[in-house]
Structure prediction request, 264 residues.
Amino acid sequence: MLPLFFRPVPSNESKGSKDAFTETEVQEYKDSLKTKAEQLIIKGFPEKIMKLNELLETPSFCNRELSDVHQDLNVPIPDPISLNHSDDGPATKKLKLENNLNDIEASGTKVMVLPSGPVPCNKPLCELIRIAKPYIRQLVEDSNLLKMWISFMIPKIEDGNNFGVSIQEDTLAEIQSVESEAAAFFDQISRYFISRGKIVSKVAKYPHIIDYRRSVQELDEKEYLSLWLVMCEVRNRYCSLHDIVIKNLEKIKRPRSTNAESLY
Prediction:
């Protein structure tokens, strides 16, 4: 190994060639992204819209009864506790029995192991979630791609002739809104499982209270409607993005006209 003072110093020529190579790679990435985004708008979005329309007409989403998503919780109702006591007994004994009743009402049933095994997730809803999640994720990815595509085509800041740039910025804001909304759909799904788990734990602790069991059914029905609405919104967002970009495609790609074009 050469001492430090004998090591060759990189020349400016080799450093410049490396920077030029890196810049070329970045430009190639930008060009490929632009091509991919344009193909997505022209061909990919219409195909996605038609596929979502077909999916929403399937029996899983169309004309389905809400009772179809009900599912047994596998939490049996225990036998009632019989407390035999006479009113003629000592006052201390009656007081003790009353305290025991109050303790049962306050603490509920101790849940160590469920006698019939675990409480399953709602299978019909899990199947719908399995179908919906890839479409939601794809909408997030497609929105991100369009966002970068428009960002790359925004010209440098100059005075005047910024009408096309304002169209780019408005379209970019709409795409960012769609991206955020699609990402929030994942949070909605996770919150459903958290809420259902909390209610099911109440059913396990208070199995004799039927309102808790009914609330699970109501939550499952609500989630079914929410999933149907989510798929409709995914389809609608693809339609709105396709519409706004196609209508303003020329201004998005060429936000500023050249001097030669402005003479005619």
